[in-house]
Queue: 2 jobs
Job 1
Amino acid sequence: MSTQESPLRAPTADPESPVVHPLGSRARVLLTSVFGPYAQDDEYGSRAMNPMELYQNQVTREQGPFSLRMFHRTWGLTLIQHNIRAPSTLLDFPTRERFVRELGSHHYDVVGISSIIVNVGKVREMCRLVREHSPDSRIVVGGHVAAIPGLETMIDADFVVKGDGVRWFREFLGEPADQPVHHPPIPSSFSFRVMGLPAPRGGGDASATIIPSVGCPMGCNFCTTSAFFGGKGSVVNFFESGAELFEIMCRSEASLGVSSFFIMDENFLLQRKRALELLELMKAHGKSWALYVFSSANALGKYEMRELVELGVNWVWLGLESSQSSYGKLRGADLRALTRELQGHGIHVLGSTIIGLEHHTPENIEDEISDAVAHDVDCHQFMLYTPVPGTPLHREMAEQGRLLEDVDLADTHGQYKLNFRHAALSRDASKELLDGAFRRDYESNGPSLYRIARTMLQGWRRYRNDPDPRVRERVARNAGQLRTVQGATLWAMERYLRRANREVSDRIRALRLEVRRELGVLSWLAQGLLGPLLLWTSRREARRHPRGRPLEPRTFVDRRNWTEPVA
């Protein structure tokens, strides 16, 4: 680090506390994500297959023109900006040139850079650029990149912050660290594209991100989130009650015009009391919101299916690891039956399966992939078992001498090749298995867009006459999509796959006709009029980008407590 000769002083006796900046809350702060382009090979270590596939919900690239595409704001930086008093700028998804221009246009006393591990090369370059164009600025680096052991020797930063960035920045700026956290409206799922076309308002309702807590109580040994915030059982709860969440969601609804919420909590449903308090308030105020949640099978088991439906749970991100894995969150769960039950109630399942676990061999891995595919979830993400820096698994494998020394950090994300010596699987074989799993899921189950429509229809059939008007309203919104855009996508997918995969094409046709019978003449018109356009754009997209086009988010610039005239 470069804090030597610093006039900064420690605010408390706590050795873990940061020093206080001499200007306190008068310091001018730039908060920025790493520069693009993303999901492309470049000189700074970005990769064509990098976690933008995960972080931007691009989990279906093997589906080509039917791959889902959307973006979410960098919510950690947004949360920090709205919880400090200092004049600040949030620069989200900048280009390298835009970042340099921002440094030159305004004087910043502090530059905070957030990144995931794979983009450490871009972090290094951004630190260099700050030293060149704003040499008086203090550089603070955080996000999951801070988990890299010895990061301070790799980059020229003044501070490397691991964990809760809100608290750290408050202490650094001499502000009360324990004051309540303010949750701003955070837009998500924007710039949605599918079949070569931008969808209106993100493919239905635009969404907002809600952050009840950070960390994870489950403590899986490979989990970066759990390790980053203190390990198993360590969770930073920003909002303890359902009433607090309800107020935040109401504000987001009013300011962003949303009815859907991504709940960025690693296991939101574990706190049953908070969830049910939120449900009672939703009932009392007639809120028909849709929630996208992460969960474990054990957490879902704490609820009746009726409670999940009334709570508005519309998507569940669910781990589908092998029954032979040792993870307690799966113990005693019939995941295939659970998946079918959720889908039967109109709840979409995004399944996540890990390949390359310790017990995997060339003899059993194919069967385990087949078992995962057989769950037929709405969207399936496959990841490699990866010892990521900062996790217990990484420390364990380092002690065993199993980490491969010639693997770049840019490839340490679980979506490329194994980065350790596996007892039975080679590095190259892991890549073939990973790509093959995505391909097999697509060929067996069809496009996720088809599966999503199928779950929508099941929910509509079951709940269209429900006594709860909130439930009826929510499934009616889904039915509206089925009548229009979703029905048209079925028409296009059926014909696109007619020669390549007749079995899946026939299943899509059957669903399309069911939608037409259930939802009437408008569905028939949409399929006939919009369907051919989507078929044409899909074929064009497949010619241009056979495995799905990586998208670039636009740059966002948000200024708060700002008094200087903006150029």
Note: The first strand starts at residue 29 and ends at 33.
Job 2
Amino acid sequence: MTSIGSYAFDDCKLFPLYILGKQLKLDAYTFKGLNSLSVIIAYNTEFEAIRRSWKHSLRNIEAPYFISVNEANLCNMSFRIVLNEYAYITATLRSVKFGGTEITPDENGLYTVTGLEPDTSYEIVVTYETAEGEERSQTETVRTKELVIDASNSTTQTTATLKITASEDESCSPTKKGIIFDGKTYECKDDKVVLTDLVPGRKYYATLFADYGSKRVTKDGFSFTTKSLQPAIVQQDLGPTSVTLRGSHTAGDAHVSEAGFTGYDGGNTLILTGLKPETEYTVTCYVRTKEGSNESASQTFVTPALELITLQPRSVSNSCAIVAATTNIGEDETSVGFQWKKYDAPASLAPGEGYAAIYGGQLEGYIRNLQSTSYYNVRAFYKSAEGDYYYGGWVTFDPSDFSYFEPTVHTYAAAEVTHSSAWMKGYILAGTDAIEKQGFEYWPLNSGAAKAMSVNDAAVAGNVQTVLATGQVMRAELRDLLPATTYCCRAFVKTATGTTYGEELTFTTLDAPTGVGVVETATPDAPTVIGYYDLSGRKSATPHRGVNIVRYSDGTARKMLVK
């Protein structure tokens, strides 16, 4: 024979299988399918080729003995010298050497060797005498138990705890374990190595090691990853022209140095206005740490279609009218208003234009100095930050056809409530009579009642306090409130003919910070302006025409419209 092909012995049981050729051509599949209990007998020169596809019992036809390893540990080994019944040589055993040293068996024929190195190959030389009186020897190689080292890890944002495991048995255990990380060696304490001052969300590599006396076993490329701050964006109040976005991250042991939205000032809350309806936008939030991480997350959103329907105006005098429109634009939008012109004005004549405010899905404004002898057209509009106009339909009205109208008053829910203060927001639109005074009334409720009590109640009337404010959309801070107390608040407008109130809304202040009682403190100085920003986030020292984002030294921000 010169060669044996693939699967030649598939599904065979052969006891033994003699392969008597030399320098045979064998492939990796020659012995595939041969029953694993079979024994192959061949010349030693063919062992390498046979082992490509056979991992089971293999005997040397020229060797009268073979090594039967009884037990191979890390640092010791026991074996027997067994007669090879398949060999053609008859022999008598003379001596056995292990690693160059002659050894003898015990009464049961078991050879035992101790003090070995783990994961190390040793030669066993068996010397025998043939039937013809010739002394010969055969050599076989054995190996102590393989060393295996590994680690498990648990991480935080800035630390990693590595628990290292390494091979050990009754014969041997490691004298030292640890890792090599960033050019430094860290030895285990209680089988663990703790690394600190790491960067969040970063993958690291280390080399594991274990020493067994003078022998060191290593494992390169062991990796672990610190926990991320997992930045994310929460979308709120998406409208056709605006959106409120809040950035968030997972709190841990990392020290956050900065967080916000790329390209914008203002921290983790981003209010975008002046957007185009039915348009796709992408924003990115980030969080940076003192440890050196810089993580980010992006979100894409599409603004919905714009709804803008001009309503029939309400004439409050022969020269003034309240104009209105229904819309799905959010209340934070300021680039909304009305255009008007005389009914018979030429098309080339630019209409008058003024901005207005939105409350509860309705845009309302006030037009003065109309001529009672003319009809007028009016339409609502929205102007994007890029200067694109969107319009409602034209509506015609007669300013001379007027009726008496009371002021329009609305109260918004309280915001930025602390243990001693709250910010209120109200909406005011004048009626027929001129406004003399406007602002908010507020009072504490008895027994923390959940339902607002009328201010006319005798128990309440004496506790009513007033804070004045200005503007169609007015804001005011209620100060010196009692902690853990429910208050009722409402916007109001006073004219010559009486007072008109908005909705009565309740809020509850927080508990006192100390948990003991109210501490009298001096009123802090009013915050100062630190900058004016346009809707693209560009800063200026003075206000500019249009919408300004005004930021103050106490971290708050306000919108201001400069006409």
Note: Residues 447-452, 515-524 have pLDDT under 50 and may be disordered.
